[in-house]
Kinesin-like protein
Amino acid sequence: QKQQAAKPESQGGAGWQGSSNVVKQVQQQNKNREQRQQRQKELRKDKELHKRMHQNNPNWEFLAMIREYRDSMEFHPLQESDPVEDHAITVCVRKRPLNMKEVDRNEPDVISVLSKNHIVVHEPKLSVYLTKFLENQHFIFDYAFDESCSNDLVYKYTAKPLVQTVFKGGVATCFAYGQTGSGKTHTMGGNFLGKTQNFQKGIYAMVGEDIFRYCTSPEYNALNLTVSASFYEIYNGEVFDLLAKRTKLRILEDDKQQVQIMGLTERAVNSVDELLQVIQHGTRTRTSGKTAANASSSRSHAVLQIVVRAPSIKNIHGKFSLIDLAGNETAGDMSSANRQRRLEGAEINKSLLALKECIRALGRKGAHLPFRGSKLTHILRDSFIGVNSKTCMIVMISPSMKSCEYSLNTLRYADHVKEHRSIYKQ
Ligand code: ADP
Ligand code: MG
């Protein structure tokens, strides 16, 4: 470096000026080195401090590595002013915050949301020499919501843009996908205040609010559109009416391959409040009772269907389906000694795989649509056909180290649903 710095002097011949430049440069270099050394000393001290603070935590090394990674990165989270993009298929990811229990256990948070569409999983690994290291796995989606995002913000970029689809005579569908406990019901049904759920703050209710707003808007007021809602559960390939005490319903297919759920309750709703009552009633039915089917709502798909009709024609004007999917960890539940659980797991697996293929087919117009692959996709067939179908999938992940493997599975699934600008590793 010194030689390089001296070069201009021998070439330029501006004797004393050149040598004073060299002196300045050397001084600057010395200063830089001192600063660097100082910083390294501080970092070592910081690391030592961190070690002492967390040495009772078996994961303190991973914690330190994740912290170091974060310190070296610039974060540019989604801003409310960021534009809402128009896609036929939107796939995004939402990271929930660590909960109290995880914080108390000192669980490392292994997820970093770097920007409005870029997420990194810091996967803890052990080398063959038993040294710990992180494998940082990167994923790109349409949006990435970090732990500070509210349901309102998530709604703005996911389901809200699809309300327009319903009024243009189309079918809109919104899925919540992820592991049990990752925040699907929180996002769709509304956030929890202790044990009670605030239904007003969920995507179900927010969609309802916008639907009623559209109905009375100058553009659509004259059409006298009416709104109604159904709420049902698909469990083990069978349909149960959540608005009729979980009555089991039959599914029939007519000659046009249209699937009918026989006797499904369809409640007329005239206001957001009335819709909220339907949501509340259905949700309570889903999580109450002691039959095998609702012992755990994580093993069923819940479907809220909001239908908009014009009085002059019997046909549906538009439809919005909102689906709180079964926990994806239950899909591979083959280790269970319980035969019933294994069958349920196989059925869930089948439906989630069929769902992935159907959304992919929607993305490639004219592709074979394998909707017969499961009851879920069979019933939602409308969502995957037609020029007017729009879908969004919100993929939820838990940030804890314990959930890392599940989170990676979830993100890989989502990456297949819509091929984004590929996963890359660093
Ligand atoms: P799932 O339906 O996927 O099983 P839940 O929606 O029931 O998960 O969420 C599990 C717990 O985590 C709930 O207590 C919920 O309040 C909490 N939770 C989920 N997502 C968030 C979030 N984004 N912010 C705060 N708490 C959340
Ligand atoms: Mg749930």
Notes: The radius of gyration is 27 Å. DSSP finds 13 helices and 17 strands in the chain.
